[in-house]
Design goal:
single chain, 408 residues, alpha/beta, 2 domains, 4-stranded mixed sheet, 40% helix, 15% strand, binds pyridoxal-5'-phosphate
């Protein structure tokens, strides 16, 4: 049990639950980004017990306007009625069957129609699962071992090579190359040296704390085609958020395969890998199999999410409200000469603090702690959902104004 964590920022109820949790659950959570950070963000509660719309409640019933969106999956809002109805309806038929269920076809067709570019799709449960599936297919199709990555792709061995105490054999380093987002010269150098050995390049098509680079994606597309490497987009965070068709539509660059999760089912556990038939048909010869991928509740949720995405202005809403919030944040930073500005794209902007790394961190901690106290569940990426309203954003801007004034 980790006894080094400072609990003094927690309320008594949270401290009691946290200490109890640590006795049976290392980290007291399953997810790195949900770990309690007593040093950096003491006022962020370690537990939330309820969520509805764009609001979440902690163990003391304190209410927050949420911008963490469960790390991205919540695109419509918590407990969105149409999704909950689809779940209840499916529950009456059962959750997992001894053979495939028709909801697999219905969800597959709904997702492919929404994406608008991919021809075939298969399901899994996590983002890390489907990134690994795409790499497996690429290696199987090209009969090559090496790959290049840009961005974060989950906990699995092939990607966690640089993590401390990772438990991953060193030999895997021989296969992996990394590529900084937006760096065109690095693409040229990579392909000059290793192009003919690369099974795949797997990239997050957009990094939320950087400027978008269509040129980076276009260059990768051209190089992968030239060298016969498979271009894989990790659309775990961009899919169904930047546009209905994700980064592929937003940047107008087509990968060969793409990995989706998070917003695909508004918080229900579903992920998918999809692409052109030529690449997905590699599955005719390559075995990828798991027990729970055809679980029907998440598929029903996803089918309903696609219905809402196609019938309502979800994407416009999150872009417009995100832009309103972004402009207002930047106005506030300018008004108080506060050393920060927003970066990224409006569905989930990031506040970039100025100075060296430790100055940035100190500024973020100071500001975010005040925001949590004021009932704003701040996050590195400020995720907007379809349930945030103009008045939620106005209240958030007002709290940000007071917070920045207090520390300027
Ligand atoms: C871009 C990206 N890829 C992959 C993953 C891994 O997904 P999961 O945590 O569901 O395994 C994440 C998770 O945050 C992600 O943001």
């Amino acid at each position: 049990m980790d006894t080094s964590i400072d609990l003094s920022g927690m309320t008594p109820k949270h401290a009691e639950h946290y200490q109890r949790s640590l006795k049976s659950i290392p980290w007291a959570t399953q997810t790195n980004a949900k770990r309690y950070d007593g040093e950096l963000v003491p006022s962020r509660p370690p537990f939330l017990k309820r969520a509805k719309g764009c609001r979440v409640w902690d163990l003391d019933d304190k209410e927050y306007i949420d911008f963490k969106a469960s790390l991205g999956p919540i695109i419509l809002g918590y407990q969105y009625p149409l999704i909950e109805d689809a779940i209840k309806n499916q529950l009456s038929n059962g959750v997992l069957f001894s053979m495939a269920s028709p909801i697999e076809i219905e969800a597959a067709e709904a997702i492919l129609n929404t994406l608008g570019w991919a021809e075939k799709i298969r399901f899994m449960k996590t983002g890390a699962d489907v990134c690994a599936c795409c790499l497996r297919l690429a290696r199987s199709k090209t009969k090559r071992n090496k790959f290049a990555t840009s961005g974060y792709h989950g906990y699995q061995d092939w990607f966690a090579l640089t993590w401390p105490n990772n438990g991953v054999p060193d030999v895997l380093n021989d296969f992996s190359h990394s590529l900084p987002y937006g760096d065109i010269a690095a693409i040229e150098a990579l392909f000059d040296e290793h192009g003919s050995e690369l099974a795949a390049v797997i990239v997050s098509p957009f990094e939320w704390d950087q400027a978008p680079s269509q040129k980076f994606l276009k260059t990768l597309r051209a190089k992968c085609s030239e060298y016969g490497s498979v271009l894989i987009f990790d659309e775990i965070l961009t899919g169904f958020r930047l546009a209905k068709g994700g980064a592929r539509e937003f940047f107008d660059v087509e990968p060969d395969l793409a990995a989706y999760a998070k917003a695909i089912a508004n918080g229900y556990p579903l992920s998918a890998y999809a692409g052109k038939a030529e690449f997905m048909d590699t599955l005719d010869k390559t075995i990828i199999t798991t027990t729970y991928a055809g679980e029907t509740l998440s598929l029903a949720a996803s089918q309903a999410v696609m219905q809402v995405l196609n019938n309502e202005p979800v994407i416009d809403h999150i872009h417009v409200l995100g832009q309103t919030m972004r402009d207002a944040f930047d106005d506030i930073f300018r008004e108080f000469n506060y050393p920060a500005h927003t970066v990224g794209l409006s569905p989930a902007v990031t506040i970039q603090f100025e100075g060296d790394e430790s100055e940035q961190s100190a500024k973020r901690v100071e500001l975010f702690n005040i925001l949590y106290e004021k009932g704003i569940f701040a996050n590195k990426e400020w995720f907007i959902t379809y349930s945030h309203t103009a008045s939620d954003i106005a209240k958030t801007v007002d709290e940000m104004h007071q917070a920045v004034k207090q520390i300027s």
